[in-house]
Amino acid sequence: MNVEITGLTRRFGSVAAVAGVDLRAGPGVFGLLGPNGAGKTSLLRMMATAMRPSSGSLRLLGRDPGGYGPRREIRRRLGYLPQSPGYYPGFTVAEYVEYFALLKEVPPGRIRAAVTTAIEAVELGDQKKARLRTLSGGMLRRAGIAQAIVNEPELLLLDEPTAGLDPQQRVAFRALLRNLGQRATVVVSTHLVEDVTAACAQVAVMDRGRIVFRGTPDGLAASGGGQHAGDTPIERGYSAVLAKARS
Amino acid sequence: MTGARRVWLYAVSRRVPFAVLAMAACAIGLRIALLRHWDDYGALQLPLIFEAAAAVSVVAAVPGPFGEPERVAGHWLPLLRLGVTVALTAAAVGLLAAAGIGGHLAGGTLAVLRNVAGITGLGLLCAAAAGGGLSWAAPAGYLVAAVYALYTQWHPPALTTPWLWPARPSHDLGGAVCAGLVFTCGIAVLTVRGARDRPGDPAES
Fold it and tell me: What is this model's ipTM?
């Protein structure tokens, strides 16, 4: 298992953003659904080693990120794209991705190839030498994904990765996710249930800091019945799971 | 080659070349100021203003644009912060000291070193506590306090605490220790935790 979480809690003052989450995930694409404020981003930030848990146990890639040595090793093998990543507008796409390759200790002889592969994977090959300031929001999002995958991570954490992508790019991105999920654990936090249907083998629904559903997208769709809000079976299942959790 | 490229990309993303230009402008400004004849009062306060401006140039190059993806990308970032900030501080001291050669620089190179290092340390602590965008606030506030402390040298009662080191003679051990302590604390906190992206954000773990 690349992700082993037991009783994980993160408090901000008196508010528990993540309240006793248990989760295990191996290779494959894992979808994290939930309404705003459900705790998805806080959970992802703890998994990215960007934030320490208040309590509970977290093991990533077989290591405890609480120690400096294990955390360093996890970070070397991790890819992370937050909801609002920052960019230096003067960098070209290639420089941006190369900088992250250098930080993530990609072997010197492989950096050029790794940068090219990552940029082409997100279909930005034609914009390789374009300054980030000249790119659209969707292109910037793809550049962010390229930095996250440049080290061929074993654990890839993506927070709302398809926000700002047009329908064609989203279709291409889901294919990329499925491809990455063949060898890595990819955790995708999203509001878009169609992303989960198309790309994820496993899904969890979070609400108020807790996981209220864990299973397959088909299982989530089957939870819906006919009387809940939503245009598709999985949307109806999502609504039904949230309604049940709050009742 | 890889290491040099890493340092260069880090430095560019922090606008280090612009910081160096700003420091050079401070040095030129100081040189021009030293061409004129100042009374004791101005001769002490003017270099301090340029030293504080150079220190702000150093701390302005501390915050980065990339946020969490950069912080969780391996172990190089603390070393890059440390190396680049120390190098910039050294450059600021060197440029201002060079500007004072042949002129009457009150306190000499020793005072430049003490003042720039100490005020830079304050800026680094401010960046770590309040965010990179506010890193100038502590040096600016300290400049006001230090200028007032210099003012009291002629208008007693004089402020003589070593924590207001610009008002102490350049060879004063207490002032040097306080400035060195602030710089050491600032550089240590910056290296380990980095600057906050925004005042409300949790610091790096």
Answer: 0.89
